[in-house]
Amino acid sequence: MTDQSGEHRGRMTKDGIRIHEAADFAGMLKAGQVSAQILDEVAELVEVGQTTAALDAFIERRAGELGSKSATIGYKGYQHASCISVNHVVCHGIPGEKKLKDGDILNIDVTVIVDGWFGDTSRMYVAGKLGRKAERLIEVTHEALFKGIEAVKPGNTFGDIGHAIQTYVEGHRMGVVRDFCGHGLGTVFHAPPNVLHYGRAGTGPVLEEGMFFTIEPMVNLGRPETKVLADDWTAVTRDKSLSAQFEHSIGVTATGCEIFTLSPTGKFHPTY
Ligand code: MF3
Ligand code: CO
Ligand code: CO
Prior knowledge:
The chain has four helices and 17 strands. The chain has 272 residues and is α+β, with helices and mostly antiparallel strands. Strand 13 (226-228) and strand 14 (235-237) form a beta hairpin. The longest helix is centred in the N-terminal third of the chain and has 19 residues, at 24-42. It is globular, with a radius of gyration of 17 Å. The relative contact order is 0.19. Bound molecules: 2-amino-4-trifluoromethylsulfanyl-butyric acid and cobalt (II) ion (2 copies). Residues 109, 111, 120, 122, 247 line the site of one cobalt (II) ion (CO).
């Protein structure tokens, strides 16, 4: 069987969501672990005075050395191995020559391809001393991702994931971004469904064993609205408030889910 994406694996639900085979989990884990290892390693380079271009150059080099290919270089014209989103940048920040300042918070998002499988993960870093408000934002965003992950098991719905995240974030008086979402992935970068980080319990497609997708909530200290800058990539908060994001690639198992992008050295969260 072949579908629009040219894939030949597993089957497809009526919503166009691929159901992968048991053997495919190993491919995703390998790719996920390479992306997570790169995020572990780049932590050593995040410091005041460092440029985001230098972080990206390191990521590109390590991706090659670890036997993977960057999924983002050449993707829709994007030219870098990572997105690096500093302070009020919500996502898709373009690495550049601007130096990190004391207290800057940044999300680094890396996607690699290993043996055809995509590993997509992002987490938060701090240059210098982490401020109190930024720390709270990072804490809530990290926890929000795991509230979403806890809602993943066969029989639950994608709406349950969004609902868990939104309820948690808004309970802390922060804003959950609507303009960007998680996505199916596997042997393609972005596939159905759109994984919304807000929504109503019990709505949306039903989760089935073998679905692979990301959960990647973006949380703002202020309002949820974003705008994209003239470079056509950089998304920022409209109210200039700080924004944070964490992302894991996961696969639905019989009883819950497997996280493919867990840190091999137990990092991920910047403050513990
Ligand atoms: N890794 C991002 C995601 O989580 C996508 C980045 S696409 C790029 O889906 F072209 F901006 F790199
Ligand atoms: Co993603
Ligand atoms: Co990503």
